[in-house]
């Protein structure tokens, strides 16, 4: 693998952890804004008013960037999508930053990345942006970030709402997935360590849901194992697989505590919707005695590890764009062949039982008028094609999001929206 697509690392402070940034041309050095995190040298996270000022400054200062409002939270805060790069680029990468409001390092890494991509002058970054659209939801849970809570203002975990779409935040992200059709969805989080079994700088995980097309699944693992983890290692960070405790001596897995295949989680929903996915988790807890004594040093390491991993993501997107496009296209086209099982449970490391497998799925689901009225908006947000008639609607499996349809409409699916009537005669 070639070196990750990132330029010189700029130290946040001379005595601190270096944070990889993309080089800004000297003539523009006075113009790019800085985040509250950078201004405070990691002593505090960027505030929400600062974020809005920062995004407006980047939008004004760079013709590569546009910022659009895609929704509004219950407490009235904006949900925003930042677009960077060529509108008609061959591939699209989407970053979802801080779905959990008390996990701030991914958000600050995303804000830094927006600025650095907007003003970068090096040829590699310009080349990347000519071939790749980079989209970011810089704060996916603004109400939770303001309150420093995992959930939103109703206490809902947004990362468990990518099937039901009950929250404004979940609905906004579903619309982005539908309308922008990203090839890669990269989801930035943080985690609490459990030494000595679970204590790396970074953990990541691909879509485990068994309805993910094999080529999408394999490319997602390649993103993890050949790009993101090596990029983090190059910056001195340790990595592992999210949710798996390992023996500190042998490295053998001991038990799984998280990271299953449930479809309502974004990394799995992304895979079911034919996009490569990767969850990334930086360690909240201090790694050293120095970090215990200096919270800002700990914060800089957290953001620095996220930025290092992002370098690997961008290298992957640029170097393997042909393979990425082939994988996502194959996954979408497979739905129109309308063949093969659909899995209502299991994961890539937990085979589905016969009871969790629709070995011979129906060709569609019939919804009566009341059912269709209740779920038609959610189906549309998911990008699922339905055929309304005078008595309700018919939802065929023969469509690009075939594997998603039973997860939404079959009574046996754990998180189904409604119990449609399976139909075998179409």
What overall geometry do the principal axes of the alpha carbons give? globular
Mean pLDDT: 93
Report the structural category.
alpha+beta
Tally of domains:
2
Low-confidence stretches: 6-29
Order of neighbouring strands in the sheet with most strands: 3-4-6-5-7-12-8-9
Secondary structure: helix percent? 25-40%
Quaternary assembly: single chain
Q: Give the amount of beta strand, in percent.
A: 15-25%
Specify the number of helices: 13
Instruction: State the end-to-end distance.
Output: 48 Å
Can you describe this structure?
The protein has 426 residues and is of the alpha+beta class. It has two domains: 9-329, Zn peptidases (Aminopeptidase); 338-423. The chain contains 13 helices and 18 strands. The chain has helices at residues 36-39, 48-61, 105-119, 123-131, 142-147, 168-180, 214-234, 266-272, 289-293, 295-319, 321-337, 369-382, 404-409, and strands at 9-11, 18-20, 65-72, 78-84, 91-97, 132-137, 184-191, 202-205, 239-241, 244-246, 253-256, 276-283, 342-343, 357-358, 364-368, 387-389, 392-396, 421-423. Strands 3-4-6-5-7-12-8-9 form an eight-stranded mixed β-sheet, sandwiched between helices. Strands 16-17-15-18 form a four-stranded antiparallel β-sheet. The protein has a two-stranded antiparallel sheet with strand order 1-2. Strand 10 (244-246) and strand 11 (253-256) form a beta hairpin. The N and C termini lie far apart (48 Å). Residues 6-29 have low confidence and may be disordered.
């Amino acid at each position: 693998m070639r070196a990750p697509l990132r330029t010189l690392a700029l130290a946040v402070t001379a005595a601190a952890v270096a944070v990889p940034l993309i080089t800004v041309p000297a003539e523009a050095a006075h113009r790019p804004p800085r985040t509250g995190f950078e201004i405070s040298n990691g002593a505090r996270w960027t505030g929400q008013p600062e974020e809005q000022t920062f995004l407006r400054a980047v939008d004004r200062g760079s013709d590569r960037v546009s910022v659009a409002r895609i929704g509004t939270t219950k407490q009235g805060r904006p949900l925003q999508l930042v677009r960077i790069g060529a509108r008609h680029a061959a591939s699209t990468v989407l970053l979802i930053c801080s779905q959990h409001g008390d996990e701030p390092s991914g958000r600050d890494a995303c804000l830094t990345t927006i600025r650095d991509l907007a003003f970068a002058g090096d040829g590699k970054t310009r080349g990347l942006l000519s071939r790749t659209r980079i989209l970011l939801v810089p704060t996916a849970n603004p109400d939770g970030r303001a309150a420093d809570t995992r959930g939103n203002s109703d206490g809902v975990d947004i990362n468990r709402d990518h099937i039901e779409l009950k929250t404004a935040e979940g609905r906004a992200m579903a619309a982005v997935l539908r309308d922008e059709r990203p090839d890669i969805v990269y989801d930035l989080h943080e985690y609490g360590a459990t030494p000595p079994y679970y204590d790396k700088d970074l953990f990541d995980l691909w879509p485990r849901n068994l309805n993910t097309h094999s080529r999408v699944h394999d490319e997602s693992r390649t993103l993890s194992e050949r790009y993101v983890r090596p990029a983090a290692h190059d910056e001195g960070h340790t990595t592992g697989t999210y949710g798996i405790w390992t023996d500190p001596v042998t490295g053998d897995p001991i038990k799984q505590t998280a990271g299953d295949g449930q479809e309502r989680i974004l990394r799995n929903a992304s895979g079911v919707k034919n996009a490569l996915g990767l969850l990334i988790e930086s360690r909240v807890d201090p790694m050293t005695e120095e970090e215990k004594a200096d919270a800002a040093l700990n914060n800089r390491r957290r953001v620095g590890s996220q930025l290092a991993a992002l370098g690997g993501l961008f290298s992957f997107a640029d170097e393997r764009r042909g393979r990425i496009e082939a994988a996502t296209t194959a996954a979408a086209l497979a739905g129109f062949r309308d063949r093969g099982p659909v899995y209502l449970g299991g994961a890539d490391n937990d085979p589905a039982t016969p009871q969790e497998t629709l070995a011979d799925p129906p060709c569609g689901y019939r919804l009566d008028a009341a059912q269709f009225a209740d779920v038609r908006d959610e189906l549309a947000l998911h990008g699922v094609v339905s055929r309304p008639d005078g008595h309700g609607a018919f939802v065929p499996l023969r469509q690009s999001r075939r594997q998603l349809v039973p997860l939404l409409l079959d009574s046996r699916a754990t998180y189904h929206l409604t119990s449609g009537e399976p139909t075998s005669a179409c």
